[in-house]
Write the structure tokens for this entry.
Amino acid sequence: MKSVPELLIVDDSPADVGLVREALAGSAHHPQINSVEDGEEALTFLDRRKKYINALRPDLIILDLNLPRRDGQAVLAAIKAAPALCRIPVVIFSTSQLRKDILRSYELGANCYVSKPGNLKDFFLAIQAIEEFWFGFVNLPPRGE
Amino acid sequence: MSSAGTGLASQTSATRIPESQDNPRPNTKLQVLVVEDNANDATLMLHGLSREGFDLSTTVVQTAAQFRQRLKETLPDIILADYNLGEWTGVEALEILRRSDLDIPVVMVTGALGDVAAVQCIKQGATDYVLKDGLARLPGAIRHALSEKQERTLRHQVEKDLARKVDELARSNADLEQFAYVASHDLQEPLRMVVAYTQLLSERYRGKLDENADKFLGYATEGAMRMQVLIQDLLSFSRVGRNGFKCVSVDCNAVVDEILQSLATAIQESGAVVNHAALPTVWVDRTQVTQIFQNLIANAVKFRGKEPPVISVRAEKANQQWLFEVSDNGIGVAPENAENIFVIFQRLHTRAEYAGNGIGLAICKKIIERYGGKIWIESQPGSGSTFKFTLPAPAPDDKSGVKP
Amino acid sequence: MNPTEVDILLVDDSQEDVDLTLHALRSDNLANRIFVAHDGEEALDFLFCTGPHANRSFDHPPKLVLLDLKLPKVDGMQVLEQVKGDPRTRIIPVVLLTSSREERDRVSGYNLGVNSYLQKPVAFDDFRKMVKLAGLYWLLTNQPPVTNGAIAAVKEGQ
């Protein structure tokens, strides 16, 4: 039996996190959505330290690049360097369309890069496409210890 | 001023006042530095000058060391130097002057001088030379040298001012473009939030609040979305000046064909017919030349009259340039508006009549002018428009790809 | 086909699966420029611009590699390891599309940096649906890493 998929969103804009929750409200997979607002918090969550001691490992991470206290690419690098975390798929979800940001993200091991659309409809479609692909079709890595 | 045979040490007949070359003291004596090892000759030189009405303050030096020292202390307005100075020569004095980078006029006052030596002096920087038995020429030579120096100083000043102004202007332009870029770039983020949530509100609560709420939300959403487009347009516009661009060989036929593909829907809906004669290959940044044609052709389709648009694109060589034409049978433009249609955000129609922000032509103009070309319109209301623009045709071997 | 402009590299030795995949990808006009390699060696030649593919350039990688695991000559896992182990090719999105249900394949794949792991469904319809969705996701939703010589430009900047 498939367990509830765990989704971690790392984004400093509560407004954007709100939009993601709205977009996934009707999802058939009923993902459990957790969110953190900055890079340090993301790593604390993933390492299960402090208040996150009982957190479950996410099955998918949606990561913004523009974050306070450790930017997205630094978080990405840390995740992909940690043996316990490196298999977790990371989707970069950012307004930046700069070639260098896209390229650097792939170099650091991002699984894919999706541009945050400017209007509601496309934003929802993008998030729903991400969720549908990763939770509906992909064979995710085992969640691990 | 007195002298006492040889062994004459450096002498001054006036108080030394520190000065700089850039700040000549007005209304004061002419500072003369005489480089002469023979005291009598020195006296003779200067005597003649006072008689001619020069108000002098003079110093005489004999050796190279004294010369160097004197230059360190005070800068003269003019130097009179002999050629033969015993253990050294006037040419060495000129050399010393040159190396110290001082622009002080020098008149050689010398005994018989061979042509070769004379030429050498001039080459080394002497303004003139006067023979000791022809001292009548000396005042004229001095006046000439001084006036030349003055002209030089004035010209340098003007050049410096100009360079500084050009610099300021460039910096100011760069600042403005940077501002436009940053403002439009940073404005997009909070605006994105407003657009997304007004849209969400609109959808979520449609029909659930009173009827005014739907209307209000509609206006808010529309306004926010329009602002989003405006800012993106402004960003595009500011990017034209901001980015460096890479010139390559671009086949305009291929560019136009691509554009026709991307406008396929609009062309089909309007029944437009677009044809282009054989277009040249130009040496430009591909993205920018695409923007030019895209804006002109899309406008020709958009600003159509009652008939389906018929649009043609042509080019011909004129002098060292390519003259392109995009003409249509659309609504045309009145002559009094021929210039301000190229101004950013200027629109001639309401939004209900024609969509758009009025940036397309402004972008075309900015790009074309960056290449040193011109763009203009020939049109009458009701009889279509012809947009003409020029792009440089580089010489066949000039493929440096350097920014114009 | 111009070797520089391939959207998808499909690496699979089963002609049946290749046909199904091509059909699914082309139906939405998703990708017309698909190159098929039938074994791991050819896949490596293609991606590393060697052998019969020496005229290809690292500046124009495919936007997506669909990679089976069981391949002749060089198997999929080795291809993956080489591609993800080399800075010139590491950024290319590679999706394992395999019938293997082994957990250790999944773990190895993700350890080596595969972008995603898809199990080929048994039923034709499900297979087609999966390929279509994967194509849509990796070619439209996703931003591919490279267009037009970006690698060279960035390397210069480094």
